[in-house]
Design brief:
The protein is α/β, with parallel strands linked by helices. It is 30% helix and 26% strand.
Length: 325
Amino acid sequence: MTICSAFGKCGGCLYQNIPFETYRQNKLNFVIKAFLDNGISVQPESIIFIPFGTRRRATFAFQKGIIGFNASKSHQIVPLNACPALVKQLSDFLPKLQQLIRELKGSGDISVLHTQWGIDMHIKRKLGELTLHQRELLATFATQNDVARLLYNNEPIIQMVQLPFPPDAFLQPSEEGEKTLIELMLTHLGTPKKVFDLFCGSGTFTKPIIAKNIPVKGFDIASDSLKTLGINGIERDLFRNPLLPNELNEADVIIIDPPRSGAKEQCRQLARSNVQRILMISCNPNTAARDIKELINAGYHIQTIIPVEQFIYTNHIELFVVLFK
């Protein structure tokens, strides 16, 4: 029995129809295979499952008055009036968005993020400029529906609350998942004299370290996100200009949380460093395994791999990996 009536049409959840134990083992096998494909034999720890119905962000597609998620491997939109994968506030928000796009018309995407201050919302529409009536429509919608901030094609329309992160900032999919990863990071951090947080974004992992009064620097290309870190944030393109071994050696511990494409060049530089402990958080086991192979070839060892299931019933899974030299 499936959880959602859109299962089989919506491209979001793919595995609601298989026994949970089979699903759990398939996810473990996925992680193991990703590493075996790179010549690394691993035995991950038990998966930490984040509860279903806790996702706080989503991007919906809309066109011709219909809003929802795309069908699997298709640009066709599956209409949705609710989504059980999301927090209740976002699921209940869908019918309101449905009415809004009927009046707004056109096609595009709407990104929504549930926060403690209200919903952070960004409409990206292909028709371009808004009429005065449409601006008034959006402003009224925001004030009536607990929208903390609303942007249209990168232009601020209304901001009810000053949010502590910029529009479209990367945050973990759920608050529960974020808390779990922070707890794992602090548990395995040890007692370093200095920490570097690579691909730090708005400081998901940097800020808890600052709170521990441990010297830390966060590095990222997203200058708007770094503003939340003040003097602890350093703007740097770690793809084109990775930290070099002599720079990395200033830290006892490196935290690295790359995007799905991984951090191949930065890991090559890490492999040449003398850093004793690396904590990697990755949402892509395939690129994580590829990059970790560079580190293993340079003498690093995997201490633990902990899968964190933030993407239940999908093809994705988060990994928390501890390496030492």
